[in-house]
């Protein structure tokens, strides 16, 4: 008894379309990986978010708070910063919402628009920043006893890193390029 259905032809046509669909999916996945590469481990991605967050907090600190940290900033000055996270509290966090404190090395530059880089006010060093509202920023005062003041605000296991500067030696150059665009040429 024949049903009139060509099973062999149907399987051949279905297999063809499955190969076409599989090829399209493979191309889409490949394109996605090329266009949007996965960057680093979850902790590295978290630290990248924290770098941006800390720099943003520092850029929006009031002139009075900057003065308290040893950085003279006038009301008309524009402030730009970069930060490089080297630790958090709690230490084993995996999400931004879990972070209470960020420990980072920073560099900020400020000046009125149109000021050349050579005349900008700059400050750098380790900082401890709480991610509360409002954020609390701790920066050790410069001068005699500075390393001891840094050690007092940074967890023991992060002290050596706090006193060693930027691990990414390109960050100061990135800040300078940004300064040239946003302040010098403004």
UniProtKB/TrEMBL annotation:
| Keywords, alphabetical | Membrane, Transmembrane, Transmembrane helix
Would you say which domain of life the source belongs to? Bacteria
- Transmembrane region(s): 20-38
Q: What is this protein called?
A: Uncharacterized protein
